[in-house]
């Protein structure tokens, strides 16, 4: 039953991505959404995000950007790869710094989470990675606060599912956000 639900969730995410972006534009997002789902389930089960998923996913993202540089908002392949690499490095740095410099409010951020944001940044660029990190930390702190209030505050909560959910939200909200931003700028 678990695998049926996993496959059903994957199919629903793919259908939604293809409905929003069409073919071939939605195919990279289908791949990303599959990776997000795998990371979420794996992190909940084992509290680990494997490097082979992170690095293979980042390489896949770079390949997609080479094929479809419009993913990064440019028609130039070299600029697209530069923006993807910049997004990946920004994502990794934004999680590495608070997670590993002893900032007390930072949730438990492991190196798997840091490398996962490299993957997300390659697919979504700097705006997507910034949204994902902020939204994930806000959601994490909200859920952790509810857990404390319910008397279950000592449980270890993996950050990966929160990061993956926020990245998935960006995948589906980015077109509307970009349209709204363009309308605001045009005024």
Q: How would the global form be characterised?
A: globular
Radius of gyration using CA atoms only:
17 Å
Q: Summarize the amount of helix as a percent range.
A: over 70%
Count of DSSP-assigned helices: 6
Strand percentage: under 5%
- Low-confidence runs of at least 5 consecutive residues: none
Distance between the termini: 52 Å
Count of β-strands: 0
SSE succession: HHHHHH
Q: What class would the helix/strand composition place it in?
A: mainly alpha
Average pLDDT: 88
Let me know the largest β-sheet: none
Strand and helix layout:
Blueprint: H1 2-21, H2 27-46, H3 51-67, H4 77-100, H5 111-149, H6 160-186
Helix pairs in contact: 1-2, 2-3, 2-6, 3-4, 3-5, 4-5, 5-6
Would you kindly provide a written description of the structure presented here, covering whatever features stand out?
There is one protein chain. The chain has 187 residues and is mostly helical. It has helices at 2-21, 27-46, 51-67, 77-100, 111-149, 160-186. 33% of the residues are buried.
Describe this protein with a few key phrases:
187 residues, mainly alpha, 79% helix
In short:
The chain contains six helices and no strands. By secondary structure, the protein is mainly alpha-helical.
């Amino acid at each position: 039953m678990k695998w049926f639900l996993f496959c059903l969730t994957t199919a629903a995410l793919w259908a939604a991505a293809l409905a929003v972006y069409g073919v071939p534009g939605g195919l990279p997002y289908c791949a990303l959404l599959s990776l997000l789902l795998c990371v979420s389930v794996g992190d909940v089960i084992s509290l680990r995000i494997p490097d082979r998923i992170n690095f293979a996913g980042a390489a896949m993202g770079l390949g997609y950007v080479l094929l479809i540089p419009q993913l990064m908002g440019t028609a130039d392949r070299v600029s697209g790869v530069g923006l993807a690499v910049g997004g990946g490095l920004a994502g990794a740095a934004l999680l590495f710094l608070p997670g590993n410099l002893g900032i007390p409010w930072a949730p438990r951020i492991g190196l798997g989470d840091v490398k996962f944001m490299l993957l997300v940044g390659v697919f979504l660029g700097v705006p997507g990675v910034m949204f994902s990190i902020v939204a994930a930390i806000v959601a994490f702190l909200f859920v952790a606060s509810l857990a404390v209030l319910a008397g279950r505050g000592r449980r270890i909560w993996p950050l990966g599912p929160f990061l993956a959910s926020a990245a998935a939200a960006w995948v589906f909200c980015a077109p509307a956000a970009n349209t709204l931003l363009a309308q605001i700028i045009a005024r």
